[in-house]
Amino acid sequence: MRGDRFYFVEVTTNHETGVITGTYAVDQQEFQETWTVGGGAQLDHPAVEAAIRWLFLLGGVSAYKTLAPPVLDTGAVALTSDEAKFLRAFYVHGLGEFAYRNGLDLSDLQVVGPQISERHVVQPPGLPNGPLIPFGGGIDSIVTVEAVKQSGVVGRLFICSRPGDLFAAIESPAACTGLQIIRATRQIDPLLYRSTELGYLNGHVPITGVLSALAVVAALAHGHDAVLMSNEHSASDPNLVDDAGNDVNHQWSKSEDFEEGFAKILHQTFGAAPSFSSFLRTRSELWVARAFSKATTYHSSFRSCNKAFRQDPEGRLLEWCGVCDKCCFIDLVLAPYLSRDELSTIFHGREPLEQEALLPIFETLIGRSAWAKPFECVGDPLECRAAASLAALRDDRSSNAVLARLVGEDPLSAAQCAALLQPLPRRSRAS
User: Fold this and answer.
1) 3-class DSSP assignment, residue 325
2) N or C: which end of the chain has fewer CB within 10 A?
3) How far is CA 213 from CA 66, 184, 286, in A?
4) Burial of 240 (0-12, 13-18, 19+ CB in 10 A)
């Protein structure tokens, strides 16, 4: 059962503690979410306050999904028509997987509230520092960091966690970068942890969009001229197309549509800086894997396994599980560029490609199922087919049963694989 109306009640900033609090309501039930962006942040500048407004608007998505009402009421927050359109797209498309899994149709969503004809540019404070790089410890963000370092530009990492709760899978590779860290926190309302008990809806939220908005606040508050994301080309691909013909994309807030839409909003708000873009937008996961294979410093510390990021610290694995979709994808995409022995070491003897029981997961990754790709942050089927085709050519994989089954009689050609290692065209499908 859906609620009637979602309210953006207010956003407040405690300048003594640095805590930003967003208050929301679904019908009569209030929820709060809090954020911080690190010590020494300048939060009272008008530009930072403008960025906080967007954090407030995008950050409401976790509270919204409890009952997914058909109306977003922005309350005292006035929006231009472009801003209202972007906000609606974020909730409709960002919650596409959530809606699909819960059998909901969010196409009736309306944004109501005060309107303004245009947004007057707010000049940001001085931005003397280089890019702020959101860092999750995976191969994508590691490749971005190393490229920035090699260019001679000095950046800092942006890492967000719950207060007092750090992820070893992020901290270990972060330490390898040698870069300073801006630490942010995000705490959702305790009621959301009782969703099942309280009869609320559950599902995936576009968390990268919320963290993007938080990173912009941090960039302005700490003097950075850019937020540099690590979202690659295939993040724009849907996982499936639903019965109504709508794309459903687990990674929508990593997509080109989100990037271009949010960058446009920021430009209308602040002018040229801070910029918001992805370093990897025109690159395939295959290109990223090849670049990462050369970053040997990180090979013993990175861990993209889903079970390393469980919310309950007691349930987090300190090693790769070797059986989840993400483990399988990372193994497959690195297999053309790292030896069997190297990957066995990385996966602590539990390399997915050496487990024939995992063949169904690999077959889904290369597109041999009704799904375009799993509801995970993984590459598209063409990238996975290319990885399998290239890996199967390695002498140390000549007897690998999983790769033999994946490639079969129809490997991708050398030219098809090579094309994925070149810059790929941008392909926004802005809504």
Assistant:
1) helix
2) N
3) 21, 12, 28
4) middle
* 3-class state of residue 333 by DSSP: helix
pTM of the model: 0.96
- 128-173, pLDDT tens digit by residue? 999 999 999 999 999 999 999 999 999 999 999 999 999 999 999 9
Q: Tell me what the mean pLDDT of segment 381-386 comes to.
A: 96
Task: Tell me the per-residue pLDDT of 73-123, one tens digit each, with 9 for 90 and over.
Answer: 999 999 999 999 999 999 999 999 999 999 999 999 999 999 999 999 999
- Give 32's strand partners: 23
Tracing tokens 């938080």 back to the chain, one arrives at 214
Where helices occur in 152-194 by DSSP H, the ranges are: 168-177
Q: Alpha carbon of 347 to those of 75, 239, 343: distances in Å? A: 50, 27, 6
- Amino acid found at 280: L
State how far Cα 126 lies from the chain centre: 28
3-state secondary structure of 98: helix
Q: Write out the H or E segment, with its range, that includes residue 342.
A: helix 340-346
Cis peptide before 128 (omega within 30 of 0): no
Tokens encoding 170: 């992020």
CA–CA separation, 155 and 82 (whole Å): 31
Query: Both tokens of residue 1?
Result: 């059962």
Mind giving me the DSSP string for 379-422? Answer: --HHHHHHHHHHHHTSGGGTT-HHHHHHHTT-PPPHHHHHHTTS
Q: What residue has token string 């800092």?
A: 156
Residues in the chain: 431
* CA 192/CA 188 separation, integer angstroms: 7
Angle between helix 285-293 and helix 139-151 axes, rounded to 10 deg: 60
Query: Tokens at residue 239, please?
Result: 């996982």
CA–CA distance from 102 to each of 177, 296, 379 (Å)?
A: 40, 42, 25
Here the tokens at position 8 are 């953006």
Residue reference for tokens 């483990």: 327
DSSP β-ladder status, 226-229 and 71-73? unpaired
